[in-house]
Design brief:
about 190 residues, single chain, mainly alpha
């Protein structure tokens, strides 16, 4: 029994367990490469409607991969890489999603947070303001949908979404005010 424990310890020393974030990053990087190739391949093939739907679906998956890569970089305190991945995510999402889609606001928020964690207050403020604007687009869209929808369960869902978006909007306003005050104080101390 003691011999097995010693063998297991020796095996761990020679082959240390892989870091879960590194494993996740490697898998996501493989997904990124494969999705990029599939999108490029799809672009050179036929231009039918189903082909463009498929391309948009692949692009949305690619944006999700960039978001997860950014999350990993953020977790590892690699803030500049996180910003770059989140910006790639945002770029893809802006190409395929309407301006009122919450996924755009989410990407902007993560860019802002990355800048904030990197003590880059001016860029954090800029991206929080953009995220707030995106949230306002989402609010306007939800209000318009409520006005035109007749389905009761859908109206109930939209009212809940509207409440969530109003909460997000208020959170953004607080964060923006906090950053503006911090920047004002920082400028006064210089």
């Amino acid at each position: 029994d003691d011999e097995k424990k010693n063998n297991n310890k020796e095996d761990e020393i020679q082959n240390p367990p892989e870091d879960p974030l590194e494993v996740a990053w490697n898998m996501l990087e493989c997904c990124r490469v494969n999705l990029t190739r599939a999108i490029e391949s799809n672009s050179t093939s036929s231009s039918s409607s189903s082909s463009s739907d498929s391309k948009a679906s692949l692009q949305l998956k690619l944006s999700d991969v960039y978001m997860k890569l950014g999350d990993i970089s953020l977790e590892e305190s690699n803030f500049q890489t996180a910003v770059e991945d989140y910006e790639k995510c945002l770029h893809v999402r802006q190409q395929i999603l309407p301006a009122h889609d919450r996924k755009i606001a989410a990407a902007l928020t993560m860019i802002a947070q990355s800048h904030l964690y990197n003590s880059n207050m001016k860029d954090a403020l800029k991206y929080y303001q953009l995220a707030s604007d995106a949230c306002e687009n989402c609010l306007a869209s939800a209000k318009a949908s409520i006005a035109t929808t007749k389905d009761a369960p859908e109206i109930e869902r939209l009212h809940q979404e509207l409440k969530d978006l109003e909460d997000c909007s208020n959170d953004f306003k607080e964060k923006i005010d906090e950053l503006k005050n911090g920047l004002t104080n920082q400028n006064q101390n210089q």
